[in-house]
Specification:
- By secondary structure, this protein is an all-alpha fold.
- The protein has one domain.
- Helix 1 packs across helix 2.
- The relative contact order is 0.11.
Length: 117
Amino acid sequence: MLPINYESWHHMPDSNKNQALANIKERYALEVSDDYIKKALGKRWRDNKSTLKKQYFKKDISLEEKLRNVPPGMLRYQWEDAVRFGIQRKERKSNPDKKLDAFSFLRLRIGRKMDLL
């Protein structure tokens, strides 16, 4: 199983992706490119992470309970990292004094200019 304690698929180390790819190639004879398999793995990883968040994280319980409520088959430290990251992300979204990244800034600027036209 691929770890979920990374912010995004792009932050996942290539060594993890390559190991998962090797496991798939070992089990199945596929006639598709490695890039296609990695792209499909990324989608499944995101879907799995989202499902776990819905089932275990987005409940109205305390942080300590969320940290203790480790999904079956998941390593505790990976779950704790994922929960803490989710809380930090939620706080960034709710903080009105947050700094905008370049993409968000440009989107706001372009949106304002389009409203003026």
